[in-house]
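Minutes, methods subgroup
Present: GH (chair), OT, SY

1. OT presented the first of two proteins processed in the latest run. Sequence and structure tokens recorded below as shown on screen.
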Amino acid sequence: MPSKSCAIIGCDTKYNDKTTLRHRFPKDQAIFDIWVKRSGNNKLLNKPLDLVYKSSVICDKHFEQNCRSPGFKKLVHNSVPTLNLPGMTEEIASTKNSSIIQIADEL
């Protein structure tokens, strides 16, 4: 069971927050790597994907509205965190890096 605390460094979503949604790290390696990098959490850098998937989450505070699947509590496929990230202003995060990554079919 994953932790209820957000993996983003500096995030205030902790175990006792019962209202904020949490999202497991993706199983797609390319998107997973982006989530880990943007988390600013060095403890996740050398952990394998399956271990991070099982133990860590990122809360809803780090995803734009267009990342949320309408009517569901899950994220749109290939969504990446862009809001409230350590060392990155929201303007830079949302303009230089899309909140939903398009993966080329050739990959």
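2. SY then presented the second protein from the same run.
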Amino acid sequence: MWIKKQIPNIITLLNLFCGCIAAIFAVQGNLELAALFVMLGIGFDFFDGFAARILNAQSELGLQLDSLADMVTSGLVPGVIMYQLLSQVFGKPFGTSPNSWGSDHILSSIDMSYVSLLGLLVTLASAYRLAKFNIDTRQTTSFIGLPTPANTLLIISLPLILKFQQETWVVEIILNKWFLIGLTLLSCYLLNAEIPLFSLKFKTWGFNENKVRYIFLLLTIALIVLLKFIAIPVVILLYILMSLFLTRKD
């Protein structure tokens, strides 16, 4: 019985393990492998809650552990990835000029690469959202603000698009400094905005009570087939627009 109760927590720890590996790759600049392990971690993040419901093993420990794991996989890693992308645009990464601080004119040694640190705002906004989520009783069956895994998928899609879909116009957009800065700020806003969003968690498998979820998943599959990795930001936009439409309808 004790082992059964721990199965969801073990799955959560696998999420954290994947997040740690992703963080190592992200710091090393291997953003594609970082994205791969983030997706594995998000998969475990989905199934830990599913396992907890199936096994009737929900617990306060599991809730807190889930947020701690998400802080790495869907908080730290996307911030580092955004930092790395900004570094590609603004210059060498932070800390690669150890002699610059020994000059007489310290301010003159600060180049635009320090703007790359703005990417870590994603990590700070994710931490704030996760802490708020744990005490917000309104988010038991739906979300207020973009969930951290969804925001992470949005950010990790960028290096994947750059790697596997190298259309000129796409590369020019993603590696535009104002696009990256704007997306960073938009990401931080969406994480903590008072925007009601439907949850993708299934309590039953019936069509009527899950109509919106099934329609969204079918559209997601179709977009992925057509657009591949470019579909990810489109799907996130679709998720927000469908949620806003449902809110207005209600």
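Chair's summary of item 2: The two ends are 43 Å apart (CA to CA).
Next meeting: continue with the remaining queue.
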